[in-house]
Specification:
This protein is of the alpha+beta class. The chain is built from 10 helices and 13 strands. Helix 7 packs parallel to helix 8.
């Protein structure tokens, strides 16, 4: 490899690996070293099976060498150990050498960020469409509901039989219950009252309230980054959103389990298509059974719940409250670990944002 080719490869943003017929590493560029967190000097000459790639991917690369046909895999998840996982688009191209041997050129482009942005855009679009649908539906229900309640009150005044008044009482009470449900579905109608706040003030308020509700066999722990700057948000709305998430976690773990409240700062982070210099990240983590596959696609839709006694309004309302403060709620779940993440921009001025490239 001449110096020009090496300079080009070393300055590429995609990881490039060159393997021999035994799947031993012959070359890895700087982007590859960063992705795998390895040193080229240490790994060149070593077999990549069980070191960089798992058994399944190593077998696929051996098939490429045997067949001589290129191989492409989109959105391939690589487990890099130490709880690191990356999603890549991978292309493997066999190269025939003059001496008859075959080498394998492997190129990997990390796509986690693009996938995350696409997912965030979907969550934001879903939240906006849901709010519009619910507001329209609630308007159509609340108007006749008010007329129904008023008619029942007028009818009650004309009745002299107390036994018959029991039926009008049922109509009025059920109308009031539906009215309250519509108001909850609509969420907060007032604009956020934003001011500079410490995010830990909201987290601690929620922790104190929920701690009093939890059984002694459920542990609620804290993992805070005290250096997070103040952010411009509505404290009451943030408390309400976090309260919904933590109470959901408490219901998930049941009578025994672990809930962790964690805070961190992210730099140069996008929420949707908006790039923020600093973002506050608040994680609510539980070791419950996880979210079922049937609920995953509709998790933030109203009236979707996995509990018989649930209303399915906690998550949609939480998402709406965080959206109103310029943020977003994301989530990941597997059996034994469910993590809801609240992302909120930290700006020295309220409008300090720019569009992501």
């Amino acid at each position: 490899m001449d110096k020009l080719q090496q300079r080009i490869l070393e300055n590429m943003h995609t990881a490039v690996l060159l393997l021999d017929e035994s799947l031993r590493l012959r070359y890895i560029n700087a982007a590859g070293e960063m992705m795998f967190a390895i040193s080229a000097q240490r790994f060149v000459g070593q077999a990549i099976r069980h070191t960089l790639f798992d058994q399944e991917l190593a077998n696929a690369l051996e098939q490429v060498l045997a067949s001589g046909s290129p191989f492409t895999e989109r959105e391939l998840v690589l487990d890099l150990g130490y709880r690191r996982r990356v999603t890549v688009d991978l292309t493997a191209l066999p190269l025939q050498e003059d001496d008859g041997s075959t080498e394998l050129l492997v190129e990997m482009k990390q796509v986690d960020r693009q996938l995350r942005i696409t997912r965030e855009e979907g969550l934001l679009a879903q939240s906006s469409a849901t709010r519009a649908l619910v507001r329209g539906l609630a308007h159509e229900i609340k108007n006749p509901l008010g007329g129904l309640r008023g008619a029942a009150q007028l009818l009650e005044r004309e009745l002299h039989n107390e036994e018959l008044k029991e039926y009008t009482h049922v109509i009025i009470s059920e109308a009031d219950r539906l009215q309250a449900l519509m108001n909850r579905m609509l969420g907060p109608s007032a604009l956020p009252h934003k001011r500079m706040i410490n995010v830990h003030e909201a987290i601690e308020r929620v922790r104190q309230v929920v701690s009093a509700e939890l059984p002694a066999t459920v542990q609620l722990s804290r993992d805070y980054d005290p250096s997070i700057p103040e952010l411009h948000a509505d404290l009451d709305q943030l408390i309400q959103a976090l309260m919904n998430l933590v109470r959901n976690a408490a219901q998930a773990v049941g009578e025994k389990g672990q809930i962790t409240l964690r805070s961190r700062t992210l730099r140069q982070y996008t929420i949707g298509h908006t790039l923020h210099k600093l973002v506050a990240r608040v994680d609510v983590i539980d070791d419950g059974p996880g979210i079922t596959h049937e609920m995953r696609e509709n998790l933030f839709l109203p009236m979707v719940t996995g509990r018989a006694e649930g209303t399915g309004l906690g998550l949609p309302i939480a998402q709406s409250l965080i959206n109103a403060n310029g943020g977003l709620i994301e989530w990941e779940s597997q059996p034994g670990k469910t993590e809801f993440t609240v992302l909120l921009p930290i700006n020295s001025t309220p409008n300090e944002t720019e569009k992501a490239p």
